[in-house]
Amino acid sequence: MHPLLQLPPFINQRMDNSMNSVLLAGAMAGLIGSGVLGAAEPNAAAAKPMLVIHGGAGVERADLNADEEKAARAALEQALRAGHAQLSAGKPALEAVTAAIVVLEDAPMFNAGRGAVFTHDGKNELDAAVMDGASLRAGAVAGVHTVKNPIALARAVMEKSKHVMMVGAGAEAFAKESGTTLVDPSYFRTEKRWQQLQKALKEEAAKQAHSDIETAKHFGTVGAVALDKQGHLAAGTSTGGMTNKRYGRVGDAPIIGAGTYANAHCAVSGTGWGEYYIRAVAAHDICARVQYGGQPLREAAEGVINRDIPKAGGDGGAIALDAKGNIALPFNTEGMYRGWIGADGVPHVAIYKDDKLPEPAAAVN
Amino acid sequence: MHPLLQLPPFINQRMDNSMNSVLLAGAMAGLIGSGVLGAAEPNAAAAKPMLVIHGGAGVERADLNADEEKAARAALEQALRAGHAQLSAGKPALEAVTAAIVVLEDAPMFNAGRGAVFTHDGKNELDAAVMDGASLRAGAVAGVHTVKNPIALARAVMEKSKHVMMVGAGAEAFAKESGTTLVDPSYFRTEKRWQQLQKALKEEAAKQAHSDIETAKHFGTVGAVALDKQGHLAAGTSTGGMTNKRYGRVGDAPIIGAGTYANAHCAVSGTGWGEYYIRAVAAHDICARVQYGGQPLREAAEGVINRDIPKAGGDGGAIALDAKGNIALPFNTEGMYRGWIGADGVPHVAIYKDDKLPEPAAAVN
Fold first, then answer.
1. Residue B37 belongs to a domain
2. What is annotated as the active site (chains A, B) (predicted)?
3. CA-CA distance, A299 to A25, in Å (whole number)?
4. pLDDT tens digits, one per residue of B151-187
5. Fewer CB near the last or first residue (10 Å), C or N of chain B?
6. CB count, 10 Å around CB of B208?
């Protein structure tokens, strides 16, 4: 066995006390219905699975024609169905998050996996992270070039290594050893993204000092948060970074706490101007406001994403989900590819700010 | 001008409201004394500068002979004096943190800069991060090999780039462009660290599955948190990583929120088993318990470092400082190089658990 691989994987002695209660509550749910125990026990009402996804907050109406918009909506629905299939089969939230993100990574219109944007040097540098709220295990990778599904590599780091975060050539070496699917870097070259880099380089040459502001809107990320039948949460995020970013820059997506975070109470995946999300420790801050400050999930998410980050000069969005099934999808850009799917298996998706996205029925605080 | 450099640097629109109050309180302090306004205004009582440092929680009695212990104490005192000189001259907390960490990086006995441990491949991979609590600006680097003072490069990323985190060859390229002092990688080769790697490799070969546990005690980090005369906080951390770590692994030190965090209320630098600190978002979680949960600093720091992280299977320590000058130095290992220096300029240092470290006199909650 290669020393990069490890058996047994990271053992988590941290078993949440509420787990036993959840099992009990699950057994009792058929008798007394959900919601009654839910008020006292964070996870107990979580018999109803939920999956929320995003495909990036950088989208603008001018970016998409009617066919592209239709294709994007179809891909979001496909991702929701893929994740929902896991949840309805009783699989852990982690599986739903991974399944949904793989679909989004494989679709060429989102800035992750196949559709990753180009760095300043004309490369595609991929980052991803995943976190399991029940065990607080996590895995993250940054700066990989040949990994078809970076979210799968993040999971391999979590499950098959003794580390949480691996970057660059070391992460590539681990990908090879752990059997993660590799592709030629040309797999990530899509014409639309290449033209975006050329435009950004031209803008930069014309007025260098403002280039970061001009190109900031080209950020994008995909992500998912899920709640499974056992009442456990998970979160994952994957990205191709920022168009024209410098070689070696790491954004918030692979930073546990910044772009990705999950615990027993709350799961978040962010999509925005990474530097501001890192400085705000955005994903963990949302969960901390819920856990320590007693704020409802939506208020906490709004406070971080739509108040604090814009005040600091950043922008973007996030998806958040708590153990009771409450969801929040704040953003302050023209659009955010987004959607959710509940126990009934009906996908709901939206792109622009004025798109109607129905609310889940049974959310409680 | 090279495109990696940027003018003006990251502009921070986030100006804390309490700043005006601090200036006012500072002017009034001579008349009414500190503490009166302090109860109402987090930063107002902070006329007394404070610097707290650590040199890593991995130290054990068996590691040091009497001469080595004496040299370590002298280096800690030198770092405290270097930081204190900045604070007593009225310089920002950020300057004190940087000055103290540069001394610790240059000293060969701490696992950062000169004394960095070796990776599995026999290299020295250096990581560092710095955060300014007043502006919430931050800079971080990971996986650099030729940067004499990684904390200086982290500051350059914060002040001279539009990014927060840069890794590997990209970070090295930025170091060159930003005028950061470079050295030959052999500068970081110290005999004691090389022998530690040989021992770890031998242990690993003998009983591979347990090698991570055996080598975990060889972690180490240096860090500093400071409170300046203006009542502003800053935090910084620098490390050579973990002996025998795999190429490309990133620990908690350069992760904003995990090993390093500062805001207007609280500053933390961690030193421990990085994977557990990342999963706990340790530094930010301590500050969140203070800010949202209303916990005293010491209780918050104890909860994260000495309760949650050991429960998950990790170990280590941290230093924490709030805007009122309260300090906490929790750890759960045999020793932690540590010390503090207050307004009077007298350094206090300790190494092992049973070493007496005096308490600052005037801390309030």
1. no
2. 221 (nucleophile)
3. 28
4. 999 999 999 999 999 999 899 999 999 999 999 988 9
5. N
6. 13
Closest Cα of chain A to B249: distance in Å? 4
CA of B249: which chain A residue's CA is closest? A166
User: Could B166 and A246 be called an inter-chain contact, meaning their C-beta atoms sit closer than 8 Å?
Assistant: yes
pLDDT in tens, A142-164: 999 999 999 999 999 999 999 99
Q: Please report, for the domain that includes residue A157, its CATH number.
A: 3.60.20.30
Q: Is A164 in contact with B311 (Cβ distance < 8 A)? A: no
Query: Looking at CA atoms only, how far is residue B74 from chain A in angstroms?
Result: 34
Residue A136 included in any domain: yes
Domain around B119 = 47-352
* Residue A177: φ, ψ to 5°: -65, -30
Where residue A132 falls among pLDDT bands split at 50, 70, 90?
very high
Give the number of beta-carbon pairs within 8 Å between A and B: 185
Give the tens place of pLDDT for each residue, B198-212: 888 888 888 754 444
Q: How far apart are CA A28 and CA A41, in angstroms?
A: 13
Instruction: Using pLDDT thresholds of 50, 70 and 90, give the confidence band for residue B68.
Output: very high
Nearest CA in chain A to B14: A312
More confident site: B309 or A191: B309
Residue A20 CB neighbour total at 10 angstroms:
10
Q: Which residues of B touch A208 (CB under 8 A)?
A: 1, 3
Options B98, B180, B190, B221, the catalytic residue: B221
Q: Could you tell me if residue A220 is inside a domain?
A: yes
Q: Is B274 annotated as a binding residue?
A: yes
Q: How many distinct structural domains can be found in chain A?
A: 1
In a domain, A108, yes or no: yes
Closest approach of B293 to chain A, Cα-based (Å): 5
* Helix/strand/coil for B245: coil
What letter does residue A243 receive in the DSSP assignment? T
CA terminus-to-terminus distance, chain A: 48
- What is the phi-psi region of residue B363: left when phi exceeds 0, alpha when psi lies from -120 to 50, beta otherwise? beta
Mean pLDDT of chain B: 85
What pairs with residue B54 in β-bridges? B223, B338
Of A11, A165, A248, the CB nearest to B169: A248
| Residue in A3, A11, A313 closest to B313 by CB | A11
What average pLDDT does the structure give for chain A?
85
Q: Which of B202, B255, B277, B284 to mutate to test the interface with A (most CBs of A within 10 A)?
A: B255
Enter the tokens of residue B278.
């990342």
Please state the φ and ψ torsions of residue A40, each to the nearest 5 degrees: -90, -30
ipTM: 0.86
List CB contacts (< 8 A) between B158 and chain A: none
Residue B250, marked binder? yes
The residues, ordered by sequence, that sit 6+ positions from B225 with a Cβ below 8 Å of its Cβ are: B51, B52, B97, B233, B234, B235, B236, B262, B267, B268, B269, B319, B320, B321
